[in-house]
Design goal:
This protein is α+β, with helices and mostly antiparallel strands. The chain has four domains: 1-198, Transferase(Phosphotransferase), domain 1 (Orthogonal Bundle), CATH 1.10.510; 246-329; 341-402, no CATH class; 428-520, Tumour Suppressor Smad4. It is 51% helix and 16% strand. The chain is built from ten helices and 20 strands. It has a six-stranded antiparallel sheet with strand order 11-10-20-19-16-17, with no helix packed on it. A hairpin with a 2-residue loop joins strand 19 and strand 20 (516-520). The radius of gyration is 40 Å and the shape is elongated. The two termini are 40 Å apart.
């Protein structure tokens, strides 16, 4: 669905503007949107201009997920945040009688708060259900394809959308529950406590090695041994308590038989003996029961730890086998290259021997027209060598004939015809007026520019640059510059660019990001 969204800047605020035309804006849903009761929705205001109505959505500090994850893709933990925020937003909308169908689910309208990392959604009263299937398919393109969990989750989201339609709250809850269950199972297998949120660990990825897993095994064995010692101490204390209780009870019986007691003392002694025996037997039973449970738990922990160790070792073995296969492939490639070079040297040696004959007699002495020398191999070596030498000699003969044909022909360089396709401009952006010149290469495009490390391709650490400021990209051989809703703007030859409106740049143009000027050449 085409929403005719345009981007405007009013004083110090960025807006996404949606035209409503002559729609009746007296509906309670528009008033609910202006009241801004739902935190997960973009704040908006209703404006009437020349008898037409417009919704102005505030976009300060927000970027669409298409722009946010253009450089660094979406990982598994960010998918968890997305489904969690989507579910909370749907629940809050239901409290204020706003339908889920009014959420505009497109790559340009689902926004990311760059400061908080949370997701914000655009609500436009009406039926917007036809966008969700397209959004689900496009979500698979922006996830990190090196993160297997993220890829599987994105495709599972597509399947749930096809099955359940536009019931976003149910789909988001199902996805969040499945992801939470997977986290709990992983944490239980690894013997760790389940976590509610996973930090972004994709920025630093260490290459695992077998030594790493061996060190991990040693530290884990030390931890398990310390835990086993503490458990043994607890068991010993229970056994000692039960033995002491039984001894006290036996002492009470001996006192009763040795000394005469009054009726009151008799009752007190019997009660003490009964209580001590009961406590000792109870402690003994509890200790034996707990020992059995601890033994079963220890067996389970050993099985889980063994499973985790096997998985880690298999992963290390896979990576090592991949490296060995890669090295073997390189060796084979080098060998084949050396064989080709050897064949070329052999051909040159044979050519030097028979070159005089070829120059004197042309193709009649040795060439494709006369293969007397090639056929003589059957007489010299027999029919068995014929099948081996004949193809090689024919190939050599044709190669030498082509060589001398080109040598005898007059040299004509000819004329190269230029194609009508535009010429690729691979220049650089050079800063102007700075102590240290900043150079932005345009060899690898698209290129996102900003100051937020980990989210852009080129970082300009300046306070006036937005977190995700602008992008350079190539289309049909031409290079374009687009502003991504920056605070202080992007300028081309002195003119400020409108957000999300690309403009072509050529060598000699002036480009300005905020107050930093660049020359493209």
């Amino acid at each position: 669905m085409n929403y005719n969204i345009r981007y405007e800047r009013d004083l110090s605020h960025n807006y996404m503007v949606v035209g409503l035309g002559d729609i009746d804006t007296g509906d309670y849903r528009y008033k609910m949107l202006e009241a801004q009761k739902t935190k997960g929705l973009m704040a908006c205001s209703l404006r009437n201009i020349n008898s037409d109505s417009f919704l102005y959505y505030e976009a300060d500090g927000l970027r669409s997920i298409a722009d946010r994850f253009a450089s660094k893709k979406m990982n598994y933990s960010q998918l968890i945040d997305f489904f969690t925020d989507l579910e909370k937003t749907c629940i809050d909308m239901a409290e204020y009688l706003l339908e889920e169908d009014s959420l505009v689910m497109t790559m340009d309208t689902v926004m990311v708060d760059l400061a908080r990392g949370s997701f914000r959604f655009m609500c436009l009263p009406g039926d917007n259900r036809e966008d969700i299937e397209t959004f689900a398919m496009e979500l698979t393109d922006i996830v990190d394809h090196n993160d297997e969990k993220a890829v599987n989750t994105a495709y599972e989201f597509c399947m749930l959308v096809e099955e359940n339609g536009y019931n976003l709250s149910v789909i988001a809850r199902m996805m969040r529950d499945k992801m939470a269950q997977s986290l709990e199972t992983v944490s239980q297998v690894e013997g760790q406590q389940p976590v509610e949120h996973i930090a972004d660990r994709s920025a630093v990825q260490a290459t695992p090695s077998p030594d790493f897993y061996e060190d991990f095994d040693e530290t884990e064995e030390e931890d398990t041994s310390s835990k086993g010692k503490s458990k043994d101490n607890d068991m010993k204390s229970y056994y000692i308590f039960s033995i002491l209780s039984i001894i006290i009870g036996l002492l009470g019986i001996a006192i009763r038989y040795r000394y005469p007691l009054t009726p009151r003392q008799n009752i007190i002694s019997l009660s003490i003996i009964g209580v001590t025996f009961a406590m000792g037997i109870a402690a003994l039973i509890y200790a034996s029961h707990k020992r059995k449970t601890l033994e079963m738990q220890e067996i389970d922990d050993n099985i889980r730890s063994e499973i985790s160790h096997v998985k880690k070792r298999k992963e290390a073995e896979k990576k090592n086998s991949a490296l060995t296969n890669k090295n073997e492939y390189r060796k084979k490639k080098r060998r084949s290259k050396s064989y080709e070079d050897d064949d070329f040297d052999i051909d040159e040696e044979i050519g030097n021997e028979f070159g005089g004959a070829c120059e004197k007699g042309g193709s009649s002495a040795f060439g494709p027209g006369n293969l007397a020398f090639a056929r003589s191999d059957e007489k010299a070596f027999g029919a068995a060598a014929h099948s081996v030498l004949m193809p090689n000699l024919q190939m050599f003969a044709s190669r030498k004939a082509d060589t001398y044909a080109h040598a005898s022909a007059p040299k004509d360089p000819g004329t190269t015809v230029l194609s009508d396709s535009p010429v690729k401009e691979q220049g650089r952006l050079y800063s102007r007026g700075l102590n240290n010149c900043i150079q932005i290469s345009t060899d690898k495009l698209p290129l996102t520019i900003g100051k937020m490390e980990g989210c852009v391709d080129f970082v300009i650490p300046h306070k006036t640059i937005s977190r995700i400021h602008a992008r350079l990209f190539r289309e049909n051989g031409n290079m374009f510059l687009i502003d991504l809703g920056s605070t202080n703007g992007t300028y081309h030859n002195g003119c400020r660019l409108q957000a999300q409106k690309p403009v072509r740049i050529v060598p000699g143009d002036e480009v300005r990001f905020s107050d930093i000027v660049f020359d493209y050449r």
